[in-house]
């Protein structure tokens, strides 16, 4: 497997670093003759000015910044041909190379992909012209799509090579980011070119006005989107802190279980990751773990902190913590997605658990996961009146309970996760007393 | 020189509320002076002008490089590079398009017979003609400029904004931020 990957990477490297650059040199060389002719100089100057202008007029999107250069280049290709597009690319590359500290290899590759895009679109345009029946408006639209697509594919190839990512994935990610705006700019450039062709330079005035308005609207829109995102992040952080505080206050009442909720949350998250749940679900399970014992708030201290064996009545009271926690969170009107974790983390696969005696897959996944991590932590954690079990014994217990108390598949995954950790890592997690979650994170990663 | 461009730039900077408070510190100003002296030498010794102009170009590049933390200098460099290509590919003189030059109120005789220290005539055999002086610029002081000169004018404009404490950052513009770096 390994050699194949590196061979693929080598091929990519050759195509990107040599292929792109050689292609760029060839295309540049062929354009050079077009630049020589006297009647083209005026156009070169006009497009130099346009390029300078467009290099510094970006359109801001939520995650990327698009410059208008592609629109300028595209209009140049439509009105005059490949040579002017190449000229704009060269001028832009020059400005950027002098203005910003660039990596020469990356810059060469970048100009390579751009010039190849321009050449492809130019060649396609010349070919389409041979068909009299194709309306220029439709062909412009098609060419805009081709420009976007070729640019995306080549750019994606370059980026995937330099950042060692997968090509298709990179393209998809890039396409998600800016396709609509990119195409909008190109279509505007196409329309503008045809207007200029028919009516001279005057239509540029309303076109520019339209463009400025669009970029203003975008700017406003995205800055408000960004503010909103910031707010969401803040709320998430707040929730996180709030939940952690809740967990700490539960643990503080129960002397036996300092840091218990944190550790249960941690193991729950590890299991969720191991079975390949999406990241938002993983986070949900983590917070479910944090809150799973919240109902212990409603259990009397003398029962909660009783040393020695509980009477059946006391044990029944303790069992109530699942329902109490459920009620508390239900009334709070927040974190409803965590309710299954709180109510059902003491259910058993064979239906002999509490509070509802749910069976098998009727128990929500979140609860099935947390049941395992809760049981494991209860076994291995030290208590004031007894040492915790060795990890091997605890895992043996989990294995024995698989299919009766625990979901067998999840139990298997959990055992695998624990066995992958080194002795020190395990010790760190098990000894963790919930002071800061950060330490736990750092210890593991 | 770019007197008119500089005047207009000052005017724009004034309108933008710029004032000269403290001048930015430029390094190795000697290089700049040296290159100006060499340009003058070229005028006095037309026969060696190609060499003088070339050396003066190298000196000015040195000045730009030493001051490259200023964006304006980097824009100057783009213009310098394009003009240097045109001059060095045409034996130390900048070819000028006679068709455009005829519209100027100057005597073109020295250019035509090769005694002008700076310019030669643009012919079919000139290299990189699109980078030579081929653009007629009618406004304020009529002149014929090259594409490299466009960048030099832009650099001059930005430099004057900086001198007047209202610098414009092209890089920040490109990143979609407000263009003014500091007041």
List strands and helices in order, with pairings.
The complex is a heterodimer of chains A (445) and B (183).
Chain A: H1 2-36, H2 41-55, E1 58-60, E2 65-67, H3 69-79, H4 82-99, H5 104-129, H6 136-162, H7 167-199, H8 204-253, H9 260-274, H10 279-291, H11 301-304, H12 312-319, H13 321-332, H14 339-344, H15 365-380, H16 391-401, H17 408-420, H18 423-431, H19 437-444
Antiparallel strand pairs in A: 1-2
Helix pairs in contact in A: 1-4, 1-5, 1-6, 2-3, 2-4, 3-4, 3-5, 3-7, 4-5, 5-6, 6-7, 9-10, 9-15, 9-17, 10-15, 15-16, 16-17
Chain B: H1 3-15, H2 29-44, H3 49-66, H4 71-88, E1 94-96, H5 98-101, H6 109-112, E2 119-121, E3 135-137, E4 143-145, H7 147-163, H8 170-174
Parallel strand pairs in B: 1-2
Antiparallel strand pairs in B: 3-4
Structure write-up:
Chain A contains 19 helices and 2 strands. By secondary structure, chain A is mainly α. The longest helix of chain A has 50 residues, at 204-253. In chain B, 52% of the residues lie in helices and 7% in strands. Chain B has a two-stranded parallel ribbon. The mean pLDDT of chain B is 85. The chains are: A mainly alpha (445), B mainly alpha (183). Chain A: It holds the Pfam family HD_5. Chain A: The chain crosses the membrane at residues 12-29, 41-59, 71-100, 141-163, 175-193, 199-218. Chain A: Keywords: Membrane, Transmembrane, Transmembrane helix.
List keywords for this structure.
heterodimer, A: 445 residues, mainly alpha, two-stranded antiparallel ribbon, 19 helices, disordered C terminus, B: 183 residues, two-stranded parallel sheet, 4 strands, 52% helix, globular, transmembrane (chain B), membrane (chain B), DUF5317 (chain B), DUF5317 domain-containing protein (chain B), transmembrane helix (chain B)
Please give a quick description of this structure.
With 445 residues, chain A is mainly α. Chain A contains 19 helices and two strands.
Oligomeric category: heterodimer
- How many whole angstroms does the radius of gyration of chain B measure? 18 Å
Largest interface: A-B, 24 and 21 residues
The helix content of chain A is: over 70%
Determine the number of helices of chain A (DSSP H or I, runs of at least 4 residues): 19
Shape summary of chain A: elongated
Largest sheet of chain B: 2 strands, parallel
User: Spans of chain B of 5+ residues with little confidence (pLDDT < 50)?
Assistant: none
Helix content of chain B: 40-55%
Order of helices and strands of chain A: HHEEHHHHHHHHHHHHHHHHH
Q: Strand order of the main beta sheet of chain A, please?
A: 1-2
Low-confidence stretches of chain A: 436-445
Number of strands of chain A: 2
Instruction: Give the class of chain B from helix and strand content and strand pairing.
Output: mainly alpha
Number of strands of chain B: 4
Count of alpha and pi helical runs of chain B: 8
Biggest sheet of chain B, strands in spatial order? 1-2
Strand content of chain A: under 5%
Distance between the termini of chain A: 26 Å
